[in-house]
Amino acid sequence: MGQDILYHLAMGTESHNLVEMFGDVKFVCMGGTPQRMENFAHYVMKEIDFNLPIGATLIDLSQYRYSMYKVGPVLSISHGMGISSIGILLHEIIKLMFHAKVKNPIFFRIGTSGGVGVKGGTVVISDTACDELLNNYYETPIVGNLVKRPAILDQSLVQELKALADPEDPYDVVTGGTMCANDFYEGQGRLDGAFCNYSEKDKMDYLKKLQNHGVKNIEMEVVPFAAMTHHAGIRAAVVCVTFLDRLKGDQVDISKEVMNEWQVRPQKLVAKYIKKLLKAL
Ligand code: R2B
Ligand code: URA
């Protein structure tokens, strides 16, 4: 290619010096919303004692479909909701890392989820990823064929993250399976969508089946995230907080304050990991 336009990031190899802008990146952190990822950038900046040049402020480097902040070796990017949104971003971020000549970056998803048999506020580090039918692969149509890519997460990273959990914290940090749904409502067996043509028993049977399979939480990105990073040979982990226990209800009815407080929990763990690794360098 003469030039490569990373369309959804509003960047390109001709218009930007990607090596200069991103060549020092070591950690790529993704999460659903622009606000959370801006907050994470500020949080990680404090944690790793990174100083911006005098007079500079953190700015959104992308300002198009996704928001992107850079704090020294850490990129913090919003991925939107669902498989196709994170899939497009992963293509462009993997290419960005390639163009910037970054070697061995570690990718994290810092997310939110619904718990299955775990209390709201629990942090789940995903050790396996499955879809709604319990398949451990990302099945996606490519030029008219359904292609399956194994959705595999780095087990040593899971253990390293788990070991950093602070036993003094007033919440649990657990490892477990994460189910990736294509939808928030019917796809996650909720009874409160615009449509619901199944019974409460159908829902509970399904959630129990997931639970018996080792699923601890449900979200909407883990399968493509695990599959695409694995396919690219990138170490990656998914750390999500749960907003509710789906065995007890469907509505996310916690206050904004509680939600904000809980959303920081995965960030704390990932920032601690980043800090530890940077110290060891
Ligand atoms: C968690 O939260 C979002 C849905 O509310 C989705 O992006 C996910 O994985
Ligand atoms: N995100 C999800 O995908 N599901 C939930 O139940 C909560 C957050």
Automatic annotation (TrEMBL):
Gene Ontology MF terms in the entry: uridine phosphorylase activity
Pfam families with a match to the protein in the record: PNP_UDP_1 (PF01048)
Classification via SUPFAM superfamilies: Purine and uridine phosphorylases
PANTHER family per record: FI09636P-RELATED, URIDINE PHOSPHORYLASE
Segments crossing the lipid bilayer: none
Organism name: Brassicogethes aeneus (Rape pollen beetle)
Protein name: Nucleoside phosphorylase domain-containing protein
Sites where the protein binds substrate: 188, 190
Record-annotated Nucleoside phosphorylase domain positions: 26-275
Family: Belongs to the PNP/UDP phosphorylase family.
GO cellular component, one term: cytosol
Coiled coil: none
Gene Ontology annotations of biological process type: nucleotide catabolic process; uridine catabolic process
Positions bound to phosphate: 65, 109-112
